[in-house]
User: Fold this.
Amino acid sequence: MAKGGFSGRRNELEEQFFLEKDKELLAALREQRVSKERKKALAETLGVTDEDLLHQLDELDIASETVMALSMVPLIFVAWADGKIDDRERQAVIQASEQMGMEAGHPGHELLEHWLKRKPDAALLGVWKDYASALLQTLAEPARSALKNDILGRAKQIAETTGGLLGLGSKVSKSEQAVLDDLAEALV
Assistant:
């Protein structure tokens, strides 16, 4: 191969390498900007300023359009407590979401449907706990108690939808009770 030909090819490869790096850097910058905008919208929707919490929510694809689904996380984890969701639990979760205004077609409803089909990662519950803690700190005592009672009451209703054998015994399984206890502890 002629000396000029090899050198020319080397220059082409270098230019192509740096062109690809430029594209990667631009894509990363765009994603950072989009992520920053999503977090800003989420902060405005939730009234939360904790950057770590907003980052965690963004990492879990919770956006201002889907944030209503976040309120359903306790119900989802109670429903998945025994490793599966039966039809009655699924229907109870859907009914609870519709009572909150998340009808079919709502972005939050779509996310909820996804969680009902595939158990979410435990990190989601951790992020929900952080969110609930931040939210509770902003509320005066009567509202704080009402919110805790509402969350735990709705979660217990999900646990009771399939409990007991032929209507006998405890309506809440041990695994569901463990999740309910964990939720109650997080809401202190």
